[in-house]
Amino acid sequence: MVDLILPSVELAAEWWDLVDEFAGAPVHGSGLHDRSEHEREPAQFAAWVRSRVEASRPETPVGVGKVPADYWWIRHEGELAGTITLRHDLTPALLLVGGHIGYAVRPRLRRRGIASTALQLVLARAGAQRLDPVLITCDDDNIGSARTIEGAGGVLEDVRGGSRRYWVSTGAAARPLGAAPIETARATLATFTRSEVGGILIGRRQPGWDPAFPREDDGDAVRMATEGDPFAARAIRDRRTGLVVGTIGCAGPPTAHGRAEIGYGLVETARGRGLMTDVLAAYLGALRASGVAEVVAHTEVDNVPSERVLARTGFSRVCREPQPDGPDQWLWRLVTARRGAAPFGRAAES
């Protein structure tokens, strides 16, 4: 049996036995950075354990370049078998290597399915926290870990700097689109008020907007909207800054066959850290829950960041389409679990 337990000072001897078995190799997912004898002193170890347990609390200071995270020790048949962590957010560095979930199983207990079971347990907890999808990375030559991640449904995005980067859906529950905001792990997607729509259309900034918002595409999205349409463009409010940094929505309600087209975009300062992947995944969940069966999107042929966002969230590139009023664009398509349709306008920015 595999279960997850919180770090505990009562298990100090077992913990250091596990660490020593790694013989100096990194213990991924542990948050352990200092293996000195000083760290093994009871008072120092107790402080470190306390910091791991408290790391998930919003009020806990995490420091520059750090994010809130849950830490667990993996127990197998009563014995400490490894470590695993769930990070609640991604920094630019974690977006390249590290991801949301890191784990390690002690060498003598590998190839017993322990990592696979622990990963499934943490994916369920990630879904409960509305993290969907999550990023998991491993060394390119770590065949065992790659198989574990792929076995959990991981979709390989690419290999960067010797690390394989997988996105895994957690199946977080979603509600149909309506007047209520969509809450994602990193943002709130809310319908625009009349005042906000007016501000966008005449170029008058509102309190709580990023200095670079609205972009020209945001104005186009709002102009396409019909008041009261739940599929209309929504404001993307970044939890990190509290500011509106972009829009996401559909060109209109789904067709009779359940097809819709999405469009999205972010101001430049909000790009490149996985925010749009989080937002799009949550929005697609709401579209599925609303009965949408097929979602399409367009990207300009040189918009690689947007292509990556679509690929991460399950889209497939269909064909290159000529545009009557501009350069060619790629057509992307996603068929959901239900029969139907989705998305709008022009997809943009990561």
TrEMBL record:
The record ties this protein, via SUPFAM superfamilies, to: Acyl-CoA N-acyltransferases (Nat)
Task: List each coiled-coil range.
Answer: none
InterPro entries, A to Z: Acyl_CoA_acyltransferase, GNAT_dom
Looking up PROSITE patterns in the UniProt record yields:
GNAT
Per UniProt, residues of the N-acetyltransferase domain are 32-172, 187-336
Q: What keywords are annotated for this sequence in UniProt?
A: Transferase
Q: Which GO terms describe its molecular function?
A: acyltransferase activity, transferring groups other than amino-acyl groups
Q: What is this protein called?
A: GCN5 family acetyltransferase
